[in-house]
Q: What sequence folds into this?
């Protein structure tokens, strides 16, 4: 039997067995990445919108930097957060290294540029269409940003989902600041990395299939809610 | 005012339902910086539940190479270090980074290679002679290259053989910079020789054509030691909890538990702590 059919069997066995240990790992994966996507949205949506509607010196530079940071390697984000949270680092006193909180911070750093940059683009396009209208009404830029954020909410959902997707799929940052501690900071991707290390490739691939299935389900769910809301209130 | 309170409670409830794992209460715990071999061989998965139940505390293991694990301890990011490079450990203690080092257990390194054995070393008892033949036949050799205990042991053996393996870089000597498991995956995929610890090898599943070629040389001895990160340097170190773990590891019960870990009837680690001080 080849690795792929073994993996298919393995993932079916894992899904049917619904082992509580695996469930905890899946739950932590989702919780950490959803929390990170939420934190990054709370910060990134307003930042993206403000950059879109305001004109100031150095704006072009910030836009380029933000776009470039979408390609920030997870390991680098992890390393920076590790150095900040380490006991020898400036925030070491809080003792949150190797906890889920540290993982959320690292993933937020990773996801923030994605959400901010995509928001900036969406809002800027909308701003081009509505600028004159909003200005003639005497609306302040901050007020305009808020209006456009609400107006673009459906396309911004995709930005948030892209951020979540990046968070739930990465392994470098959570490995570094979480430490892949069994029962505490072990998530789907670090488990897959660990099982690969142990040479149990079918199990690793099976876990990968489950992760994909989860992300697919979550995306379908969000899309369904979006469609419903769009029909109802759009 | 009442309304505000209600909203707060409701928000908390929603947060707890959305993030059930994150809002769990916590047991007292220590962080142990340890090695990939102890983690990937499955020892901790077997050992820690026994201790945690007994001691009512949690042991959080971060598994890295020995060099990295000691770095972590040096920065104060762990309470206890549990690694395998005696030379480095003694220096670590001498430099004041850790205290109370105890030896816990041992196993041995083995030279793994492809069944076809292009360097003709199978069955040999002399690891240095084996390495010399690998080098002279320019057969592919995978090195951990990650400052782990196994990597340090490998470099010491090359040192005894008088060969500088780095001269073979870019041709037969391949540094992967990865843990024991990934390095074994690489070696098995390119039919290369590799020095591995027996514990990881026994639990390793993706062997392909690789087999043990040299074992039993006394220079392949692999000692594990445990120590407390120096609380004088890092005041937040959990001295009492850390010592509870260390003392249990070297106690008769801890030693018996370690010796009881086996896969397919093969014992992985041999307890050898010196009796209580």
A:
């Amino acid at each position: 039997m080849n690795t792929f059919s073994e993996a298919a069997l393995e993932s079916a066995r894992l899904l049917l067995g619904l082992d509580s240990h695996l469930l905890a790992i899946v739950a932590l994966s989702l919780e950490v990445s959803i929390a990170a996507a939420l934190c990054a949205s709370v910060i990134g949506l307003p930042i993206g919108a403000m950059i879109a509607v305001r004109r100031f010196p150095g704006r072009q530079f910030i836009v380029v930097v933000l776009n470039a940071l979408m390609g920030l390697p997870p390991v680098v984000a992890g390393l920076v957060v590790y150095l900040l949270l380490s006991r020898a680092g400036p925030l070491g006193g809080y003792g949150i290294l190797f906890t889920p909180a540290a993982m959320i911070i690292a993933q937020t750093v990773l996801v923030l540029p994605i959400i901010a940059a995509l928001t900036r683009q969406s809002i800027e396009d909308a701003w081009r269409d509505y600028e004159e209208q909003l200005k003639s009404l005497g609306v302040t830029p901050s007020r305009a940003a808020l209006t456009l954020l609400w107006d673009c909410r459906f396309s911004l959902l995709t930005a948030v989902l892209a951020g979540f997707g990046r968070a739930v799929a990465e392994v470098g940052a959570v490995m570094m600041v979480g430490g892949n501690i069994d029962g505490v900071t072990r998530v789907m991707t670090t488990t897959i990395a660990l099982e690969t290390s142990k040479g149990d490739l079918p199990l690793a691939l099976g876990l990968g299939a489950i992760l994909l299935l989860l992300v697919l389900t979550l995306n379908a769910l969000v899309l369904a809610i979006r469609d419903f809301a769009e029909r109802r209130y759009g | 005012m009442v309304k505000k309170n209600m909203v707060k409670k409701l928000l908390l409830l929603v947060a707890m339902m959305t993030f059930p794992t994150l809002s769990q209460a916590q047991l007292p715990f220590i962080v142990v910086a340890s090695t990939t071999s102890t983690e990937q061989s499955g020892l901790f998965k077997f050992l820690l539940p026994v201790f945690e139940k007994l001691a009512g505390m949690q042991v959080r293991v971060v598994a890295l190479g020995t060099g990295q694990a000691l770095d972590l301890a040096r920065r104060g990011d762990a309470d206890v270090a549990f690694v395998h490079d005696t030379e480095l450990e003694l220096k670590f203690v001498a430099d004041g980074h850790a205290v109370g080092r105890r030896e816990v257990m041992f196993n041995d390194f083995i030279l793994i290679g492809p069944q076809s054995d292009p360097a003709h070393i199978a069955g040999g008892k002399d690891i240095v002679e084996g390495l010399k033949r690998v080098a002279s036949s320019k057969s592919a050799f995978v090195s951990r290259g990650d400052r782990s205990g196994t990597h340090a042991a490998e470099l010491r053996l090359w040192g005894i053989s008088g060969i500088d393996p780095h001269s073979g870089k870019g041709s037969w000597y391949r540094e992967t910079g990865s843990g024991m498991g990934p390095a074994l995956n690489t070696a098995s995929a390119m039919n290369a020789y590799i020095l591995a610890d027996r514990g990881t090898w026994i639990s390793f599943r993706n062997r392909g054509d690789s087999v043990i070629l040299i074992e039993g040389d006394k220079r392949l001895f692999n000692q594990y030691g445990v120590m407390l990160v120096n609380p004088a340097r890092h005041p937040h170190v959990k001295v009492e909890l850390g010592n509870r773990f260390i003392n249990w590891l070297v106690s008769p019960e801890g030693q018996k538990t370690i010796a009881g870990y086996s896969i397919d009837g093969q014992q992985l680690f041999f307890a050898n702590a010196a009796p209580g001080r």
